[in-house]
Structures are given as structure tokens and as C-alpha cells.
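Reopening this one. Same input as before:
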Amino acid sequence: MEGIFSWATAVTVCSVIACIVEILTGNSSLDKTVRFVLGIFMLCVIITPLINTAAQIVNTDITAEYEYNESNDEMKEAQIKILKSRLQKLVEKTLAENDIEPLVTLITISIADDGSIESIKAAITLQNTDAEKAADTEELIRSRLGIECSISVS
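Same output, byte for byte:
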């Protein structure tokens, strides 16, 4: 309520000042220019507090909605789960392009205390028929994706 009162006071004071300036200019050749400038001045006086208030409301809503809390373990777990899923699909796609069908692909991500990723590892289980491709598969995943890889044959 105090904000509305101060806004109304500012509009009133500026209106009085604008009227005084307009009276002082009289009927000179600058009359249209002075009225134009005073009109813009009044428009700014009226709109500026409204824009500031709207910006505060929007910033408060956005901050509250997207506030990241360091202790929010559920958010971190969801992000890690999505990352693992995407990496698993990428590994499987890379293997499929080289005619290798894994039985199991497991992605492990180590997270540091500060939230950064320490390491990403892939554990791939191949079929007995692909046993001779184990070394090539490990090198393929390391070279193309940059992921440490361990291969087992089942």
C-alpha cells in the first residue's frame, strides 16, 4: 500500500511541475516541443514504478519456481538417471553401428562432493558369439565416446 501512495505522490508532484513549466513557456514557438517533452516525462513517471513492480513479481515467481537447492537429492538423482539413460542409448547405438549386440549395458557415473562428474564408466556384457570382438568393442567405446569401458562375455 505504501508503494501505491508513493507512486501517486510522485505522479502528483510531477504533474504540478509539468503544469508550472508549461505556464512558464507561454505561447512561444517551443510550445509543442515543451508539451511533447512533458508528455514523455509524465509517461515515464507513471510507467516506471509499474514496470519495476512487474519485474519484481516476475523475478520472484521465476526464482521460486526454478530455485535450485543444493540439498535437493531427488533433482540430482533425476538428472543422473537421464544422463545414464542417454549414455546407454549412445553406447548401444555405437555398438549397433559396428554389428555388436550387447546383452547388458550398464553405465556408472561417479559424482564429486561439489556436484561435478568425476568419471563415467560403461560395463558391457557381450554374447559368446561376440567374444572375439571384446577388445575391439572396448577400444571403440573409449575412442569414439571417451568412456572408460569394461567388457565381459556371457
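So the earlier flakiness isn't reproducible anymore. For the record, Residues 31-66 form the longest helix (36 residues).
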